[in-house]
Amino acid sequence: MSEVPEVRPPTVTPVRVVIALCLIAPFVAMLWVGSYARTGPEFIGIPFFYWYQMAWVLISTALTMTAYQLWQRDQRARAARKDGASK
């Protein structure tokens, strides 16, 4: 009765670290108020304080989309490994 032990992929992988960084970066940028609590430089007449935050709306969207795509690819790879190992 020799049973083959189930080989599980590691929980923390480089891809998952990148996903976490993509999701954490906007929080860090917005919580670090000292980095953007000023009026200059202005962009088309809008003080830095406001356009910096609006820029992070777009950046956060792009980072979230990237994290989602990486997560989907990671899940497909794990499912393929699991299906390949069970055959």
From TrEMBL:
The keyword Glycoprotein does not apply. The chain crosses the membrane at residues 17-37, 49-71. Keywords: Membrane, Transmembrane, Transmembrane helix. Pfam families: DUF3311. This is DUF3311 domain-containing protein.
